[in-house]
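Sequence design from tokenized structure. All designs in this work follow the same two-part layout: the structure record, then the generated sequence. An example of the structure record is given first.
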């Protein structure tokens, strides 16, 4: 009977290791990304997952229109999920 208790304890221990090394950090990262996407606003400078920098010029629930480049003629709609970094404009 003591052998069965050791096996159960070992399984619980392995489950705890998986939780603290894989599941919990992934949930924290997902929450951080959701907070980032909730904070975006028109006028913010963003970095996309493709490595492009641009400025948000319009938004809907799940898409943004981003203006790229210095000529102000390149406007591309994209999903909010493609945003990985946000820089708020300086208050003057």
């Amino acid at each position: 009977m003591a052998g069965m208790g050791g096996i159960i304890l070992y399984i619980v221990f392995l489950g705890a290791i998986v939780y603290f090394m894989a599941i919990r950090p992934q949930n924290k990262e997902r929450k951080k990304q959701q907070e980032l996407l909730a904070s975006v606003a028109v006028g913010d400078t963003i970095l996309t997952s493709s490595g492009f920098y641009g400025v948000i010029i319009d938004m809907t629930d799940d898409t943004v229109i981003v203006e790229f480049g210095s000529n102000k003629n390149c406007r591309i709609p994209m999903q909010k999920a493609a945003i990985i970094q946000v820089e708020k404009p300086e208050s003057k």
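The helical segments are 2-39. We note this feature because it recurs in several other targets discussed in the main text.
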